[in-house]
C-alpha cells in the first residue's frame, strides 16, 4: 500500500489516505519519496480550479527520491538511484514530438496529478521515460521545485536560443521569477527585474539582476523603450502589455510562463513594426530537465525554500494560499 495525503473533495484539508497501486507496469519505476515541492498548480488541483480534479486527489509533482523497483523493460535506472519526477509521469513515446525529444509537447502526455496519484505520499510510480536522474552536485533538499518551476523558466532559454549578452527582463519576482533571475544571469544575460517593492528590489539584485524597474511606474517602464531582447512574464495578473511591448528591441520576444487571468488586447500593428513575437512555453522535456539540472549544479542555482514535514502539509498549503511562502515550499519525510 502507498500512504499519502489526499483531498477528499474540492478545497478540503488534506488527510491521510492509502491506496493499492497494483502490479508494477513493465515500463514503470517506483520511487520512494524523500521530498516533494508544493507548487501553486497543486493548490489549483486541490481546489479544482481547472475542472480536471478527481477525488480522492493526491497532488505533488516536484518529487525527489530513490528508485525502489523497476519494471521488466526498464534498464536505465538501478535500485537506490536518486531521481526526480516533475509535471509529467508518462508519454506516448511514439509521436513526432516524442521522437524529437519534445515529450512535453506530446498530445498524450500524462500529468502526474491529473487522473492519477502524485507525490504527496511515501512512494509514487511513473513511466521510466518521464523520470530524470539527479546529477552529482545538486542539492537534494531544494531540488524538487526545479522539476517544475526551474524547468519552466529554463525551457525558454533553450527553445528560443537565448544567447549570453542578451538583454532580458523578468516580470514578477516570486516562485518562478526568483529562479529565472538566477538562470538567465548564470547564462550570461544582462537581466532586469520588474518589481513593485523595495524589498523585492534588493532581493532581485542579490539573485542576479543587474538592474530593476518599478512595475507600478509607467514612466520608468517607458524609459526602457527598445531595451530588451526578451521579456519573460511569470505573473498571472493583468498588465498593460502594450506598454511592456514598447520596451522590446526589434525582433524582441514577450514570452509567458505565467498565465494571466484575462485575455490580452494587443494591436497587431505593434508587432509588425519591430517584428516582435509573443509566445508561451510550458515545462520542458526530460532531456531539457536533465540539461537544466546539470546547469543548476554547475552554477549552484537553488530555489529559496521553506521546508516542512509532510505532517504539516496543511500548514504549508495555507501559507501558499495566502501568498506567504518565500519562495517555494518543500515537504520532507523524516527518515
Descriptive terms for the model:
335 residues, alpha/beta, Quinone Oxidoreductase, Chain A, domain 1, Rossmann fold, 2 domains, seven-stranded mixed β-sheet, six-stranded parallel β-sheet, 10 helices, 17 strands, 24% helix, 27% strand
CATH architecture of the largest domain: Alpha-Beta Complex
Spell out the CATH superfamily of the largest domain. Answer: Medium-chain alcohol dehydrogenases, catalytic domain
**Mean pLDDT figure:** 96
Number of domains: 2
How many beta-strand runs? 17
The level 1 CATH classification of the largest domain is: Alpha Beta
Order of helices and strands: EEEHEEEHEEEHEHEHEHEHEHEHEHE
* Helix percentage: 10-25%
Q: Which structural category do the helix and sheet elements fall into?
A: alpha/beta
Which fold does the CATH topology of the largest domain refer to?
Quinone Oxidoreductase, Chain A, domain 1
Radius of gyration over alpha carbons?
A: 20 Å
Strand content: 25-35%
Contiguous uncertain segments of 5+ residues: none
Broad shape: globular
- Put simply, the count of helices is 10
**In angstroms, what separates the terminal alpha carbons?**
18 Å
Largest sheet: 7 strands, mixed
Explained architecture:
With 335 residues, the protein is an alpha/beta fold. It folds into 2 domains: 2-148 and 284-332, Quinone Oxidoreductase, Chain A, domain 1, CATH 3.90.180.10; 150-280, Rossmann fold. 24% of the residues lie in helices and 27% in strands. Strands 3, 4, 5, 8, 9, 16 and 17 form a 7-stranded mixed sheet that branches. Strand 11 (190-195), helix 5 (198-206) and strand 12 form a beta-alpha-beta unit. Helix 3 crosses helix 4 (177-187). The longest helix is centred in the C-terminal third of the chain and has 14 residues, at 286-299. It is globular. The protein starts with a strand and ends with a strand. The model has no long low-confidence stretch (mean pLDDT 96).
Amino acid at each position: 500500500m502507498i500512504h499519502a495525503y489526499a483531498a477528499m473533495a474540492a478545497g478540503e484539508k488534506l488527510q491521510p489516505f492509502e491506496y493499492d497501486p497494483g502490479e508494477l507496469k513493465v515500463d514503470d519505476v517506483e520511487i520512494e519519496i524523500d521530498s516533494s515541492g508544493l507548487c501553486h498548480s497543486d493548490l489549483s488541483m486541490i481546489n479544482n480550479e481547472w475542472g480536471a480534479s478527481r477525488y480522492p486527489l493526491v497532488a505533488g509533482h516536484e518529487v525527489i527520491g530513490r528508485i525502489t523497483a523497476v519494471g521488466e523493460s526498464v534498464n536505465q535506472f538501478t535500485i537506490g538511484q536518486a531521481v526526480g519526477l516533475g509535471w509529467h509521469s508518462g508519454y506516448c513515446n511514439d509521436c513526432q514530438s516524442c521522437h524529437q525529444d519534445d515529450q512535453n509537447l506530446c498530445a498524450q502526455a500524462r500529468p502526474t496529478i491529473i487522473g492519477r496519484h502524485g507525490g504527496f505520499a511515501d512512494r509514487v510510480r511513473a513511466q521510466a521515460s518521464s523520470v530524470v536522474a539527479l546529477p552529482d552536485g545538486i542539492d537534494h533538499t531544494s531540488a524538487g521545485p526545479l522539476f517544475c518551476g526551474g524547468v519552466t523558466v529554463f525551457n525558454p532559454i533553450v527553445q528560443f536560443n537565448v544567447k549570453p549578452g542578451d538583454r532580458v527582463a523578468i516580470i514578477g519576482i516570486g516562485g518562478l521569477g526568483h529562479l529565472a533571475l538566477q538562470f538567465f544571469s548564470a547564462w550570461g544575460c544582462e537581466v532586469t527585474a520588474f518589481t513593485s517593492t523595495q524589498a523585492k528590489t534588493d532581493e532581485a539584485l542579490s539573485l542576479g539582476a543587474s538592474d530593476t524597474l518599478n512595475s507600478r511606474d509607467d514612466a520608468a517602464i517607458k524609459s526602457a523603450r527598445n531595451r530588451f531582447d526578451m521579456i519573460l512574464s511569470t505573473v498571472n495578473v493583468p498588465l498593460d502589455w502594450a506598454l511592456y511591448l514598447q520596451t522590446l528591441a526589434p525582433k524582441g520576444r514577450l514570452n509567458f510562463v505565467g498565465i494571466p487571468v484575462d485575455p490580452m488586447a494587443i494591436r497587431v500593428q505593434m508587432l509588425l513594426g519591430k517584428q516582435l513575437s509573443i509566445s508561451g512555453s510550458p515545462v520542458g522535456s526530460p532531456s531539457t530537465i536533465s540539461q537544466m539540472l546539470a546547469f543548476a549544479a554547475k552554477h549552484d542555482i537553488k530555489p529559496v525554500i521553506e521546508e516542512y514535514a509532510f505532517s504539516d502539509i496543511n500548514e504549508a498549503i495555507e501559507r501558499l494560499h495566502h501568498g506567504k511562502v518565500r519562495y517555494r515550499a518543500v515537504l520532507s519525510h523524516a527518515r
